[in-house]
Amino acid sequence: MDKNALNLNEYDFGRVRLIATDMDGTFITPACVIPPENRAAAKLCDDCGIHFVIASGRSYKSLGDYIGVEGKNGFIIAHNGARIATAGAKKELMRMPLSMADARFLLELGDKLNVTACVWADEELYVSRKTRFGDLYAQASNTKTYYFDAKDPYFLRTSKEDRSNIDKIYWTARDDGTPWKSGEVAKMIPGSVSCFTSGGGCMEFVDSEVSKGNALKKLCELIGVDIADTVAFGDSENDITLLRTAGFGVAVRNADPAVKAEASFETDSNEECGVAKAIERLFGKEQLRKEYKL
């Protein structure tokens, strides 16, 4: 059976051992706050031995105070899947940065198109131009920002196997606020790079092997969890692979229609603590407490 055709009565939630959630637009409010209800739901999962996973396009640094909600048994998927770490980002389990050739190509392309490129290299943020959207992104990134000349990206260096030190390149919306369309941008880039839209009409670039879905699959392999025993939450295009890969995918009400099409269930919006309400409805607090003798 197609898992997307599953309903609440056809999936055994008692077998779930891992819950992964996107952050922006899904787990946190539009004001970028984790509601107490969502924190409580994450803690309940952690107390019950269910791995709670942050799966974000953000870097470890820009997750800031959000780190910790994953509890003691959780994990962090950052940069849309380019990096995986244990709880608190204390130990990195996997990293897949862009190749040197692809990083150079994307920087040169952004320069030709006169776009504002935000580059994450070794957990430091570099921005190609000082613009309103670039400043807004930098302010939300919880780290010092360095400005660079795209024709001379001094931070770019080769690491293992001709991999650059760049995990992700992010284009803000155009100066006039016009959003990017991933289908149009994809025609300009090599097949070794994946691109997708994220909040605010921005465009993100990672290695073609990188996605939240692939990261979830890799994490499950590393910790011995059957991918079928996972539930994932999301709202944006970069969450599609996450919901598609998980055993059961949940979209928040404010999600993009393409994300809802991949989901087996729709919960309330991020403003309405949709993740917490879904966890309570899908599992039932009393069911969890009884099963784990809490």
**Fraction in beta strands:** 15-25%
Spell the H/E element sequence.
EHEHEEEHEEHEEHEEHEHEHEHH
Determine the N-to-C terminus distance.
35 Å
Low-pLDDT runs of 5+ residues are 1-6
Number of helices: 10
Task: Write down the overall geometry.
Answer: globular
- Which class of secondary structure composition applies to the elements? alpha/beta
CATH architecture of the largest domain: 3-Layer(aba) Sandwich
Helix content: 25-40%
CATH topology of the largest domain: Rossmann fold
The number of distinct structural domains comes to 2
| Count of distinct strands | 14
What's the main sheet like?
8 strands, mixed
- Mean of residue pLDDT? 90
Rg from alpha-carbon coordinates: 19 Å
Strand order of the largest sheet: 5-4-3-2-1-12-13-14
Q: What is the CATH homologous superfamily assignment of the largest domain?
A: HAD superfamily/HAD-like
CATH class of the largest domain: Alpha Beta
Descriptive keywords:
single chain; disordered N terminus; 2 domains; eight-stranded mixed β-sheet; 294 residues; Rossmann fold; alpha/beta; Hypothetical Protein, Haloacid Dehalogenase-like Hydrolase, Chain: A, domain 2
Structure explained in plain terms:
- The chain has 294 residues and is α/β, with parallel strands linked by helices.
- The chain folds into two domains: 3-96 and 211-291, HAD superfamily/HAD-like (Rossmann fold, 3-Layer(aba) Sandwich), CATH 3.40.50; 100-207, Hypothetical Protein, Haloacid Dehalogenase-like Hydrolase, Chain: A, domain 2.
- It is 29% helix and 22% strand.
- It contains ten helices and 14 strands.
- The strands form two sheets. It has an eight-stranded mixed β-sheet with strand order 5-4-3-2-1-12-13-14. The chain has a six-stranded mixed β-sheet with strand order 8-7-6-9-11-10, sandwiched between helices.
- It is globular and about 60 Å long.
